Queue: 4 jobs
Job 1
Amino acid sequence: MTRWPPHDERILELLREALADGSWSAYHGEWIDRLEATLRQSFSAAHIRLTCSGTIAVELALRGVGVTAEHEVILAGYDFPGNFRAIEAIGARPVLVDVAPGGWTIDVEQLEPARTSQTRAVIISHLHGQLAPVARIRAWCDDHDVALVEDACQVPGASIAGRPAGAWGDVAALSFGGSKLLTAGRGGAVLTSSDAIVQRITVFADRGNDAFPLSQLQATALLPQLDSLADDTRRRASAANRLRERLKSTPGISLPDELERDSVAAYYKLGFQLLETDMEQAVGVRARFLEHARTCGLPIGEGFRGFHLRSRRRCRKVGELPHTRSASERTVLLHHTALLRDEAEIDRLAHDLSAAIASVSSTR
Ligand SMILES: *Cc1c(COP(=O)(O)O)cnc(C)c1O
């Protein structure tokens, strides 16, 4: 098993420095300043607001674009559960649209049928190694004066058409949670280049003090990881491509397509869907698959549960959300630690995954 986070001497060095000079106990200081400067550069954002989690970063992002209790916010029926809660926390109404068939990102075609005069924002998430079609979404948002909130929590280091994931939205969220690609155990950030957005966030989050802070110690842990982010992203992407190549002719499984050449994928989790055609059987087949895969020691689990079963009192649904249901019942996620391995180990991984798929097919 690949350990996460990996042991990193550079983090120890910075920690020693912060402990030796007492800077670790300051609310603000060199480490936070350096982290903010690095993030501004890496994500082409004029402003960074560091936060105590990605979940709160999404809520602050919504508040930043002016979402209030009078508004509706469009999001995909399959998404991180905290994003639905963030909309509710403001008192606004979640409006669910379907994901694109076979994947996990919002279906652009569903935005227009979802729009009303109350629509203030759209949340899009890049999930499980798949990047949302941001250029088209950006254009739609601009045409209709709807704010774009980009959840880049799973994809730091990714880019789309040469521009970083997280730089397409009016505002974006990052997570530095324990299992994430950049980790400080906890933490997050809001990114934006809009003065008005950062101003609204400041008004909400500063209560005489920063109410959702990230500490100097956390900043020391993140700095070296940002230095190696581009290299690590490349290593994981090449492992994911190798795995895709090995598994592409395996029946019963669908992996997201490889990206256009001007884009770079990031893999917090590598997602795929088990192609069980009888939807009534899908959940059971997945459970058996996971049981088998875990006995081989694979770091693997199921995807999000989806919001398609949420009550109509809590949200408005656009259509029946069939692809959301499919994603919520068939998704399997391989954790990124599986991707930081050498080629022979990736081949073994592909073999174990095929065997687990074959084992559930034969018991159908
Ligand atoms: C992890 C994650 C978050 C929130 O992150 P926390 O820091 O754990 O609160 C938000 N969105 C997505 C897609 C995530 O994967």
Note: The chain has a mean pLDDT of 94.
Job 2
Amino acid sequence: MILYVLICMLFNTLGAQDVRTVSQVSVQERKSIIIPCWYNQAYVNNVKYLSFGDYWTFSNYVEFSDGRRKHETISVSDNKTTNILTIEMRNIQQSQSGKYWCGIDGPKSHIGIEFNLKVTADIAGLYVQNQMLAGLEAGNVTIYCYYHLPKKTGIQWCKLAGPCVLESGGLLDGALVNISNNNGVVSVNMSKLKKENTGWYWCSVTDLQMPVHITVSTREQTTITTSFTRTPMTTFSQPTSSGTIKSTRSFTSAQTPLFSMGFSDCDHAVQNLASVAKKYQPKESPSSSQR
Ligand SMILES: *[C@@H]1O[C@H](CO)[C@@H](O)[C@H](O)[C@H]1NC(C)=O
Ligand SMILES: *[C@@H]1O[C@H](CO)[C@@H](O)[C@H](O)[C@H]1NC(C)=O
Ligand SMILES: *[C@@H]1O[C@H](CO)[C@@H](O)[C@H](O)[C@H]1NC(C)=O
Ligand SMILES: *[C@@H]1O[C@H](CO)[C@@H](O)[C@H](O)[C@H]1NC(C)=O
């Protein structure tokens, strides 16, 4: 019981705020996927890793952000500007289904957050055709999230480690979001795009999420050649739109217990302590494998 309390305290205080990712992703066998994990700036210089296993403490290292394992199909890269760790998994096999952890290595900072990967033989429960999309400043981009699920509740579009917009639509960091849902496709239309909207998002249907990256570029290139009569600022300045939509009700925090942290299900953890002991497989120390 003491251990249970300690685990909950540790993960609630460190894990919840400091690393965030999606909670459950489905992918079809032999396809590829990119999973982003956001981390607090405090850990920018720590080595990050991906590990595999039901329990973080006992999970096995798969790859590190310095690529030391030279994994053939999984690469982990750390963007220190955006504080985002991206995990790219290629040619995924059924045996790779299960629980993964985005972890931060360091003497005092043992922090990890889990995500579940469901590898399906047939079509995945929720997928996109392309995870990397682009749009222009003041323009729009539409994300199509396809689902093959019996239920279609819980539709939302969220910024990774940020706010969400529900099916009714609304504003997200100043961009206008319209979500429609027809024939197994959730279409998320983001318009009035700003440069700051660049980043990782995820669409969600039921308990599945799918990460999507959006890059918003400026129209500078176009403007330079056509700006003899109009200045760039005038051409592309946008009216402030915060007064046009009353959307407070459509916001929800991404930091619900479901998505916010790894060891959130403490009751579950304690129930399984017995089986943890049985499965005990110590992780080799990352620093020792560095040598
Ligand atoms: C980090 O992300 C920024 C913004 O998306 C991008 O411009 C930059 O190239 C990335 N850096 C690396 C090392 O991937
Ligand atoms: C939305 O984007 C499309 C293609 O990217 C473009 O043709 C259209 O003009 C844009 N609409 C607005 C209102 O920006
Ligand atoms: C969202 O898009 C749908 C379909 O294009 C449209 O019917 C609806 O009016 C739009 N909603 C908003 C709030 O713009
Ligand atoms: C997305 O919204 C913009 C602005 O309302 C609109 O011009 C564009 O046609 C929409 N795109 C799609 C694919 O519905």
Note: The helical segments are 2-18, 220-226, 232-236, 257-260, 266-271, 273-279, 286-290.
Job 3
Amino acid sequence: MSQKRIAAAGLVYTIDLRALVQNWTELASRSRPAECAAVVKANAYGIGIEHAVPALWQAGCRSFFVALPEEGQRAREAAPGAAIYVLNGYLPDWGGYFRDFRLRPVLSSLASIEAWAEHFAGEPSGVQVDTGMNRLGLSLREARELARRTELVKKAGIELLVSHFVISEEPAHPLNAAQIALFREIRAELPQLRATLANSAGIHLGPDYHFDLVRAGIALYGAEFSPHWPPLETVVSARARLLQIRHAAAGETVGYGATRRLEEDTRIAILSAGYADGYHRLTGSLSGRPGAFVLIRGQPAPLLGRVSMDLIAADVTRIAGAMEGDWAELFGAALPIDTAAHFAGTIGYEFLTQLSTRAERVYINDAVNP
Ligand SMILES: *Cc1c(COP(=O)(O)O)cnc(C)c1O
């Protein structure tokens, strides 16, 4: 990334690959002796599969999970030796991807297991069982039927038993115990398979929940995975350029829809970022409802009015020295991405996966391509 492009950018993401690697190393140590796989679906939660996967591979990560075959292709090109699982399963017209990029489907119905066995006899796969989410996966009854059909299990190459938590971020919730009990029951019927249940928060429920492999997603990327645990190292930060300072008088309004009327004379900073940069429109403020804030010169500048497509207004009345050309932090080490997301009524997962393609990206501490 050239300095010229960064200087001319409205919004810049800085993505710290050493922090990503440190987070994986930390989660791997919290999970041992289970294997710690990385979930890199949705472009590695927005940060870029092509950067995240080689960094994680070099750190020692050997198994990756994506949602879609196309993501699997990108992960394969980044890590030729990895085991890559496709969580959304297998449909017969996806076969080319699975063959060309040696992907392993996580199969979720008896019909798809039969189809995989027919077209990919003996090639490795996983099977997902539903233990309470009512999303993808075999029911207990279907899992029992599968367990009886030992020839099919073999022919479909099934080697991994997968299930997924509903509410692992709340350790005391009774569904966790119910899910693990059902998972153990199904596992007892298919004891030859490796087993995986835990996502990021599930890792923190304790060693009973780790089984043979854990699937770390959000915690790798430094966002909040449970209100009961601190997030790991910050991986992504976003900063926007301050384009202009203006003054408005008490009683005037700011932005589209005139939704925010000023109670006092105000110094307004106009920032070069907006909802087209993935900074959610709902972070803005209305009269009587405060919005998110950004940091300018390290101090909080509350948003004024609606977020526009390309611009954001923030109150810098009390920030001495704020001036054109400054960079405002939208989220990062000093302002967690989840704090910004909560103002929009959403979660860090959504903010991360909505990182925009318009913004410039700067990858730092890249040990693979320094
Ligand atoms: C997304 C996903 C994960 C990762 O969950 P995090 O909460 O981000 O750690 C693990 N397993 C499955 C099946 C998923 O869909």
Note: Residues 175 and 347 are 22 Å apart (CA to CA).
Job 4
Amino acid sequence: MVIASLLLLLTATQSSASPSPRSASSPRSPNNALLKSSGCGSSPSWDFNSKNHHTRNTTVDDHERQYLIHLPNDYDVDTAYPVVLSFHGANGNSAGQEDASQLSYDRQRLADRRIIAVYPQGVKGAWESAPYAEADAHDSDIRFVSTILDELEDNLCLDRNRVYSSGFSNGGGFNNLLACTPSINKRVAAFGLASGAYYPAAHPGSSCKPGRKVPVLMTHGDGDPQVHYHGEHTNASSHSARLSRLPNISHFAKDWAERNGFERDGYKCTRMEGTDKVHIWTWGGDDDDDEDAVQVQRYRVLGMNHIWPTTIKGQQRKHEAAPFNLTEQVLLPFFEKYTLSL
Ligand SMILES: *[C@@H]1O[C@H](CO)[C@@H](O)[C@H](O)[C@H]1NC(C)=O
Ligand SMILES: *[C@@H]1O[C@H](CO)[C@@H](O)[C@H](O)[C@H]1NC(C)=O
Ligand SMILES: *[C@@H]1O[C@H](CO)[C@@H](O)[C@H](O)[C@H]1NC(C)=O
Ligand SMILES: *[C@@H]1O[C@H](CO)[C@@H](O)[C@H](O)[C@H]1NC(C)=O
């Protein structure tokens, strides 16, 4: 037991000693030991193509499901990589989310390591919690995520203490549901939500019972014409109107702050450096040893449309660009602060 812990510590030390651009700017180095998955030490049974992609087909509750995996270029069976899942928006797909999120870019790093990026595919382009999601997807999308985590652990070398999840729009709403679901949030260290559609079934309010303090970061444009920053205030009482209501993002963030043990108004408000278009509300400190450090962050981007924030336009980025790249400037540094201790 003692030897095993020592080995883990040694591995962690060696890994964080490898040079990387991020280590210079990182406010602290990760101190939790990494936890290698059972897939470490042997080459993956899955075939990866020349672009380091594999599309995995699996079965969940009699549904055929798919997810796209991107391995780091230098994938090594003895390095426990962090994992980031990223869920597409309504009518989207895995490839589009890979393009929009830039998570597969070679330059992305988390805790001085490259990452394994995973892009699950929703049934008919939608995720559980949206009123337009397949009725029989009920609960099966959450089981799909458990299956993905099981399969990744068994087949690849990853750091089980550093698994993270993110999503855009309907995929952001689904991520909120995942953050509220103890069977998932005990395996996922932190969550990132971009322009999320937090329908009632995504548990934006009091029905969210996460069972632990969950680090959550959300970004939302106040020019979003599809998922309004100030919510949808329909007073219609029809069934479909009730399923489609969306929260005021400010209240939504405060609900998370309260769940994590903060005062609703106990935030500090800052601006992103280099732009006056990004306002940031932060609950919780920066001290790793402090329970209260489990942060909630809300980014309001002035005038921004319904996008995964990035400074460039692309296939899935028809709208005007954002003043920052969410993935490398905000999301990965946020994730880096949090590890599970399984
Ligand atoms: C999974 O299914 C898709 C489409 O049905 C196919 O293109 C792909 O090659 C399959 N992947 C594997 C590993 O069999
Ligand atoms: C959303 O919440 C904020 C903060 O409480 C408030 O200032 C704003 O008026 C709310 N918007 C709507 C449309 O209720
Ligand atoms: C609900 O909306 C209708 C019209 O959209 C309006 O006439 C009515 O006053 C509203 N009721 C409440 C309680 O806000
Ligand atoms: C955002 O990412 C794009 C694509 O890699 C890059 O061209 C651009 O310089 C990045 N922007 C910033 C502000 O880092």
Note: The beta strands are 53-60, 63-70, 81-87, 116-120, 158-168, 190-194, 216-221, 268-271, 278-283, 296-301.
